[in-house]
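Troubleshooting log. The previous run stalled partway through. Resubmitting the same two chains, unchanged.
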Amino acid sequence: MSVFLTYLKVFAVGGGLCALGQLLINKTEMSSARILVTFMLLGLVLEVAGVFDAIKEFASSGVTVPITGFGSAIAKGALEGGREGGLLGAVSGGLKAAAPGVSAVILFGFLFALVFRSRSKKI
Amino acid sequence: MTDKAEYRAFVKRNSPKSPMWRSLFAAFVVGGLICMAGEGVHDAISALFPALPDEDVGSWTTVVMIFVGAFLTAIGVYDKIGRVAGGGSIIPITGFANSVVSPALEYNREGVFFGICAKMFVIAGPIIVFGIVAGILVGVLGLIG
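Second attempt completed without errors. Output:
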């Protein structure tokens, strides 16, 4: 039963974040790049404020699968890097934490673009 | 001759109402489902590799979700989801994958260098730049504070 509850919380919080994004799109007609940057920075600020872990404890993937999780990971990595490696750690910690996601996106993007053809007919 | 204000009012009256509640609902449901899928991937990875530390499970979950988002984009499914879900397909990490793969595919006919490799960051570029710069700021301020 607790598993069911966890998934329910993931659904509610994750869905809530996405609905909030949709509200921003409807109200301001922001482009998807701006939406993604806004939510990534939101995650980063929540991490720095020290509340991201509490939300993550509650909602798990509901807040880490949205791009807020990416921002939080960057802030966490930067702070940890600073604690362990001084200035160099502080400067490189964020990118280090972002590396799995960025590497995956570049690798798969490159491979799929080589193999597949675009489906849209607009050009 | 109609003046501008009158014309604007006319356009507003006659353009279709943007389906506000429906779009919010669709974003909520699809975004929630994608996050639940991520939780499923997370649970599956930690069940298959119990020795893996929790942070690594999170990283692998991100990689798997990016793979899925990239693949669904490549076969043309993700854009169909996006047409219905809007923010529900943009904000999850699969949407980040989509933002890279979609322009990369779109421009692959312009060659590997200036097509795929240059255009793949048209949307993701700002995210990566903002992320890295903000991360450096946080790190350096963390040293001071």
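Takeaways: Chain B has one domain: 21-144. The CA atoms of residues 44 and 61 of chain B lie 9 Å apart.
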